[in-house]
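Researcher: I'm preparing a figure for a lab meeting and need a structural model of a single chain. I don't have an experimental structure, so a prediction will have to do for now. The sequence is pasted below. Please return the structure as tokens so I can convert it later.
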Amino acid sequence: MEFQDKNTFTLRYTFNGEKKENNNYKTDQWINLPFANFKISIRDFDNISSQQKEFEQNAYYFMVNNPNTIVNKIVKEIVVTPLNAEAKTITIKLREKNPGKASDIVNNIAEEFNSYDVEKVVRLQIIFFPLLIPPYHR
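Model: Understood. Here is the structure written out token by token.
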């Protein structure tokens, strides 16, 4: 990325082995590319400008990761074990350098586990509840 001013920038990227360069993107507007949709906002253009002058190229860059690659990496580093079978509780552990990222991932897994557990109970109630009602009340 190279910022021309606080409102426009150039984006250079490689997609499927092909190098692309697109000029004059606008800040604070959605950019739709084949591999991602995103928006760039600038908080301190003076700082960005001085850093761009310090580096000959690529003062600012980012990478868009393949979701399958990320999932495979997380799966290798996560451990889910039953804590108490009767209480239906589990322990979720993730080895990750970034504690905030680890917390987000583990909390999302826990939320999904709880949603699945609630959904399973509701399904059982739908299946078995009619069987519990006496025939004359149906």
